[in-house]
Design goal:
Largest sheet: none
Number of strands: 0
Strand content: under 5%
CATH topology: Glycerol uptake facilitator protein
Number of helices: 11
CATH class: Mainly Alpha
Helix content: 55-70%
Length: 246
């Protein structure tokens, strides 16, 4: 099989979820070495997951390495080119689903050792700290707007002359990882900062079908927010950027 943008997005997103949801599982499941390590560990782990996911996506054929339908949609709105959505988004969803299955396998004995169904779901999908639909939507919306603007700003700096303040293009994945880390630290305490529809949807589907002992509900009543709000935020971010760039 040859490297391609589809394979790159799929494998990169799979690694993103394996490492991102993996750090959540390490912190919240019982009898792990990282049990109760806290929010700093989770947000750092997610930042590193994004960085490594980008590099892996590049290696497997996706130079763009979106790993996130919100990024794909936001850039499509900015550039007025929607041609990548039909191929990138399915690849990202499949990759997210497969990554969640790998997390389940990695922590196989710990699901039974963990009694709290909410902790098990947290290893797959997000949920709000205070369940209020409007504010939860706004939290995901704002965080995603910042994500898209930050990604574009980093990309813009990467095309600038390094001698005049621009950054070498190879540094961009590290900075995007730091951006996600920053979003998690500053804005993630309300909803768990999905900021990526497939990051939530693919693993939530996996949670619903996997044989996890006493897993409880997959919380589909909340599940639409981390899908719709990031897409809405991405569209608005794309329009804001278009106003300044085009």
């Amino acid at each position: 099989m040859q490297p391609s943008p589809f394979i790159g997005e799929l494998v990169g997103t799979m690694v993103l979820i394996l490492l991102g949801n993996g750090v959540v599982a390490n912190v919240v499941l019982k009898k792990t070495k990282g049990e109760s390590a806290g929010w700093i560990v989770i947000t750092a782990g997610w930042g590193f997951a994004v960085m490594i996911g980008i590099f892996v996506a590049n290696a497997f054929g996706s130079a763009a390495a979106h790993l996130n339908p919100a990024v794909t949609v936001g850039l499509a709105v900015l550039r007025k080119d929607y041609s990548l959505i039909a191929s990138y988004v399915p690849a990202q969803l499949i990759g997210a689903f497969l990554g969640a299955i790998l997390v389940w396998l990695q922590y196989l004995p710990h699901w039974k050792a963990t009694e709290d169904p909410g902790a098990k779901l947290a290893c797959f999908a997000t949920d709000p700290a205070v369940r209020t639909t409007g504010p939860n939507f706004i939290s995901e919306f704002i965080a995603t707007v910042l994500l898209i603007i930050g990604v574009v700003a980093i990309g813009y700096a990467g095309t600038s002359d390094p001698e005049r303040g621009g950054i070498p293009s190879g540094v961009a994945p590290y900075l995007v990882g730091m951006l996600v880390w920053s979003i998690g630290l500053s804005l993630g305490g309300t909803t768990g900062y999905a900021i990526n529809p497939v990051r939530d949807l693919g693993p939530r589907i996996a949670h619903a079908i996997l044989p996890i002992p006493n897993k409880g509900s997959s919380d589909w009543g909340y599940g639409w927010i981390p899908v719709v709000a990031p897409i809405a935020g991405a569209i608005v971010a794309g329009l804001i950027l278009r106003f300044f760039y085009f």
